[in-house]
Amino acid sequence: MKIRIRGNSIRYRLDKQDIAALEQTGKVEEETRIGAGALHFCIKAKDSPEARIKLEAQAVHLSLPLAQVQQWIQTEQVGIDQEIANPDGSILKIVVEKDFKCLTTRDEDDSQAFDNPLAAHNC
To answer: What residues pair up with 10 in beta bridges, in sequence order?
Structure first.
């Protein structure tokens, strides 16, 4: 799972292994060790009508509607977009996407990433 945070938005990118875990177990998790602690991210597919997110200590828990997750997994749909209202009235934008292989060489393993649909157009 790749996570990008910018202002009031969080973008999650899931590769084939992440999506398989989400489909089989109903959740996918990632943890980043920082010093003596860790930052934990979790996405769950729940039988509920709306997306929810909560911050607990060093963890971010995102719950998405099960039907929406199943449709995303079983189709060519690239992503799920959600807007969740914060208690202060601000909006948190959430995007969960299939992770595509990079079009340029990078020092990271993208063997589990999806084939990039723009690869055929790359010069």
So the answer is: 5, 94
Question: At 8, which amino acid appears?
Answer: N
Residues in the chain: 123
pTM of the model: 0.82
Question: For 18, which DSSP code?
Answer: H
Instruction: Determine the CATH number of domain 2-102.
Output: 3.30.1360
What is the spatial distance between Cα 72 and Cα 6, in angstroms, rounded to a whole number?
A: 24
Planar angle of CA 30, 31, 32, nearest 5 degrees: 130
Residue 44 near residue 54 (C-beta atoms within 8 A) = no
Cβ-based neighbours of 79, under 8 Å, separated by 6 or more = 72, 95, 96, 97, 98
6-25 confidence digits (pLDDT tens): 999 999 999 999 999 999 99
